[in-house]
Amino acid sequence: MIPDYAQPFFYQVPWRSGSVHAGEHLGLQRGPGDEFSKHVSLVDYPDARRLDLRQTLRDPYEQVQVRVFKQEATTPLYAVCDLSSSMQFQGQMRKLDIAKTVAASIACSAHDNSDLFGMVCYDHAVIPYLSLSPSHHAHQSFATITQLDDFRSTRKDGSGIVEAAGLLGQQKGLVFWLSDFHLPLSLIEHGLNLMANHQIIPVVLWDPLEYQRLPRFGFGNLQDPETGEQKTIFFRQAIRAQFVEMFEQRKQALDQLFARFDIRPLYLDGHFEAALLSDYFEQLIH
């Protein structure tokens, strides 16, 4: 059963799928479809239903000609979910709950378009029971995604992205990397290189309360959610402004890194609607 929060979105792939399974995208394999490919002799492609009488009469070698079409094909969609400690941050919603909603929308969209859905979850390593190989099994997809409700992680970094990237299939697909990207830039770059065979959509999960809900004046304790290290800081207006500036600088650094890979990220500010991803793909087309 598809959960209510799983809303489909529009997407399109800009490449030809090499899959042999019929789907909704432009493919490389010949077969039943609407896209004309070429004429060949009936000997080479013995399907009399595709006979082209006009082309046969024109053939100088007097061979019977048939029309060959390219079959629409499937493509895999992946949700690569960062479950490191920082994803437990609770703002308007827990970041991990937003990731769950996005993953469910990806699964819903894939199954609506007869595509395959796969998921790889990780913190410092891949989490097997929260990971799925690409398949058409909608029930299994949503049952696994629902388990994110109960997941808790403390003092775990996101270095498992290296292992997670190695679990993606060889067939080119859409990879939605769901993370707050509070990772070293070198690790993010390494992950992008490992997933370069796919089209990557970084979905950056930030919340305004991460850098706005701070003491206005006085001492406050901050804990690095990835390492558990605590620091005591005396807050004043200038310090609060520095935190805002730090996030802005981080965004610029991420944008520059993604641009080097010709990737445009999608930033979510504490909430998600499927229409945001539809708009994202519409802008890619135009």
TrEMBL record:
Pfam families (UniProt xref): DUF58
Protein name in the entry: DUF58 domain-containing protein
Domain DUF58 residue range list: 47-250
SUPFAM superfamilies xrefs: vWA-like
